[in-house]
Design goal:
two-stranded antiparallel ribbon; 236 residues; alpha+beta; Beta-Lactamase
């Protein structure tokens, strides 16, 4: 069964009218946010569909979303990357290459011709054979903390991305970052709750330690105090 996001994406591809495409694109932006926010505990299951949608909207050959793991970035979802890169789950050290530099500085990179920068070309996702003449890389950042990055490269039409593409990706990156942050907090709270030790029952209390250490401690059941006798039957 196709999701609403998939249906809107197919409709976007089939539409030729520019005004209609802009309207559908606006609907897709809203649906992406709906999908992410409605499944905060497992939103990562939708990331592949989302990066694929971004590829369609921006007419880009490659899209990748990387999550920070300590001093490295790990691919969480991708579209158009070589299978060998996806299978080996390439890690990028913070500070290295385009994605690593964006993660280290928290500042975006929007370049029109990546091939002129040999350092970045050689250290990008995909290795030395990575062919890209245009690149957008944005941080997934909340409260100045970089949680990951999103990359879009290789425009299918023309030689560079437009400012409107950058603005769209910036809005999406902001939404993904907020929901990623909430997801991390949710996971932390869930893990913390599962580790709480239940309190002992109020009507039971352990007595002194047993003489034999191999035997469990005895538990004394506390009996309620009996009510006082009526005056007429009390002993004088």
């Amino acid at each position: 069964m196709q999701t609403k996001l998939k249906i809107l994406t197919e409709k976007y591809k089939a539409t030729q009218d520019k005004n209609q495409k802009d309207m559908i694109r606006y609907q897709i932006e809203g649906e992406i946010f709906t999908v992410l926010s409605s499944t905060i505990d497992k939103y990562n299951e939708h990331l592949d569909e989302i990066v694929s949608t971004v590829s369609t909207l921006m007419e880009a050959e490659r899209v990748s979303l990387l999550i920070r793991k300590g001093n490295f970035l790990e691919i969480a979802a991708s579209h158009g990357l070589p299978e060998s890169v996806v299978q080996r789950k390439s890690l990028i050290r913070i500070g290295t290459g385009i994605a690593g530099k964006v993660a280290a500085t928290g500042e975006p990179i929007f370049t029109g011709d990546l091939t002129k920068d040999e350092e970045l070309k050689q250290s990008s996702i995909g290795g030395p054979g990575f062919k890209s003449n245009a690149f957008i890389c944005l941080p997934l950042k909340v409260n100045n903390e970089v949680l990951g990055v999103i990359n879009v490269s290789n425009p299918l039409k023309g030689t560079s991305f437009k400012k409107s593409d950058f603005n769209f990706l910036q809005k999406l990156a902001s939404k993904i970052a907020i929901l990623l942050h909430k997801s991390m907090k949710f996971e932390s709270l869930r893990n913390g709750a599962s580790s709480v030790i239940p309190s002992p029952l109020p009507e039971q209390a352990p007595t002194s330690a047993p003489a034999d250490k191999n035997q469990p401690p005895k538990v004394e059941t506390r009996k309620p105090t009996p009510p006082p006798l009526p005056p007429q039957i009390r002993k004088k």
